[in-house]
Design goal:
elongated; 2 helices; 112 residues; single chain; mainly alpha
């Protein structure tokens, strides 16, 4: 009886050792994957900082204004600037919409 009990204890100990080894191996592989992922994240963050620097250079207001002036012929002056509300046309006076009558917007579905 004691020999059978000792045999089961030794078998249980062997199974425990195998289970712990399996957990240890999975932990090691997961740590390797984690290190690879951390390295990839560090590389991507470096690339992001390079792109942010490049974007700051490309999107600078001075560069955009220079390109707009040279390629499109635009200058940095505003077309019309109103300094007060009195300069706005009143309702019905010199308004481009005063000549056209207002209409209701209707949409009719086609008959089926």
């Amino acid at each position: 009886m004691i020999r059978v009990f000792n045999f089961f204890c030794i078998a249980l100990m062997g199974l425990s050792i195998l289970a712990l080894y399996d957990v240890s191996e999975k932990t090691r592989l997961t740590r390797v994957d984690l290190d690879k992922t951390r390295h990839a994240i560090a590389q991507e963050q470096g690339q992001i900082s390079v792109l942010e620097t490049d974007w700051a250079r490309v999107a600078s207001p001075e560069r955009v204004a220079t390109l707009a002036q040279s390629k499109l012929g635009l200058d940095n002056s505003s077309a019309v600037q109103l300094s007060s509300f009195e300069q706005l046309p009143r309702n019905g006076e010199d308004s481009p919409l005063s000549q056209s009558p207002l209409r209701n917007a209707n949409a009719e579905a086609p008959a089926q």
